[in-house]
Amino acid sequence: MSPSEPTIRFGIMGCADIARKVSRAINLAPNARIAAVASRSLEKAAAFARANNLPPDTKIHGSYESLLDDPDIDVVYLPLPTTLHLKWATLAAQKKKHVLLEKPVAVTVAELDQILAACVANGVQFMDGTMWVHHPRTAKMREFLDDKHRFGELRTIHSCFTFAAPDSFLKDNIRVKPDLDSLGALGDAGWYGVRAILWAAGYHLPKTAVATRALVLSEQGVILACGASLHWEDGKSATFHCSFLTHMTMFLTAIGTQGTLQLNDFIIPFEEHEASFSTASQARFNDQVTGWEPGPVTEVHVVSTDIPQEACLIRELSRLVGEIKVHGGKPDLTWASRSRKTQRVLDAVKESIDNGFQPVEIGN
């Protein structure tokens, strides 16, 4: 951290499990620190602070309102259930707090638009909690996709994120409660697949989405597994599948006219400080079609990072907030745009499911 870069003060609003990981990330980021934690009771907030070894000077708030009124907070991190995002993220922005919001960022894009409008009106930075896009591996993969000689033109993308949730999760977790996270697996696991597809496609929205019939609903009507195909006007296509019911799988494959990119741990790397991906370029069979042509067709690329990807997220968000706080900069709207596009595709997939798996056009 440069001498002119401020240390950004984070307040954690809510004590969900993911807040444990993010609180560690804040501690690891060189330009951030935890200043406060809030829950709906002082006892729960204090217990979270103790369990996660938060700094002794961390303020403990017994209500969300109290945290938002704290003048010593720059950024509010909200790991709350999705149905609470509209209320609390909007209030945070109105209190001039920068917003780090867990995914899915809203139940619908209409709700997200209200959150983003509040952020713009109050000049605060918005970012969602998608961690993998901040890993340095992601930038290296982008270099390959942009290489016209090695990768060519993008034509197809496939993504999958599934995990076999235990019975306790399927019964009691907020992600299967229709009044808390009504999008279920689509909003939780599907968010990652959609974001990965959009990332590979340079964040150009597809024209249409069609949900597949691989749909599983809970007794309460919450999505436990689903998938969709996405289609662009220029002929590109993509598929994703997400589920709470099958073995842990998280792969991403991008196929171009000259090459292919693949990885099997795109959301959470197998190792915290080192991640890899494989590429193939201009591959072909040998003359007798008994194998592949010899030569450096396939490569494995290993990328190291000094801090884990979640701390990379905090570092980048803190840098942006510091530019606003110290230098009078403007919020970077890139992150809000990426969140909105991801949410827009989720909306279309959900609409396709609700309409009997019919194609849905994706507008702006």
UniProtKB/TrEMBL annotation:
Family membership noted in the UniProt record: Belongs to the Gfo/Idh/MocA family.
PANTHER family (alphabetical): GFO_IDH_MOCA-LIKE OXIDOREDUCTASE N-TERMINAL DOMAIN-CONTAINING PROTEIN (PTHR46368:SF19), PTHR46368
Domain spans labelled GFO/IDH/MocA-like oxidoreductase: 140-261
Gfo/Idh/MocA-like oxidoreductase N-terminal domain location: 8-127
Matches recorded under Gene3D superfamilies: Dihydrodipicolinate Reductase, domain 2, NAD(P)-binding Rossmann-like Domain
Highest taxon, organism lineage: Eukaryota
InterPro entries, alphabetized: Gfo/Idh/MocA-like_OxRdtase_N, GFO_IDH_MocA-like_dom, NAD(P)-bd_dom_sf
Pfam families from the UniProt entry: GFO_IDH_MocA, GFO_IDH_MocA_C3
SUPFAM superfamilies membership: Glyceraldehyde-3-phosphate dehydrogenase-like, C-terminal domain (SSF55347), NAD(P)-binding Rossmann-fold domains (SSF51735)
GO MF annotation list: nucleotide binding
Protein name as catalogued: Gfo/Idh/MocA-like oxidoreductase N-terminal domain-containing protein
